[in-house]
Amino acid sequence: MKENEIANKIVGLAIEVHRAIGPGLLESAYKECLAYKLQQSGLYIQKEKPMPLVFEEVKLECGYRIDILVESKVVLEIKSVECLNDVHFAQILTYMKLGNYKLGLLINFNVTLLKQGIKRMINGYLGIE
User: Fold this and answer.
1) What CATH number corresponds to the domain at position 105?
2) Contact 79, 107 (CB under 8 A)
3) Domain residues for 118?
């Protein structure tokens, strides 16, 4: 399955989660619910996947963790904030760079309409899903 197909499936499931439980909960609740839906749909996921930093050929375990990695291809960063800011975009771009991933989705569940809370990151460029 290609990245775009995976992303489309993720967005559909994220919308289902948002419709079921709405905005205003903690990030961890959305992460667990979405992870459950992704697994139920047959997608392979890794929650809290460690992302080491390689600096001058030394692998450093700095505590970076991808919220959810789907099919070892798509990075999901889950938020529940009033509004996304530059540090959120920098965070997902860093994970994509460190893991050499082509596609990432930054999903803010704390919005009235989830479509407004989904940002698609492609090779370091921001696009709106």
Assistant:
1) 3.40.1350
2) yes
3) 3-128
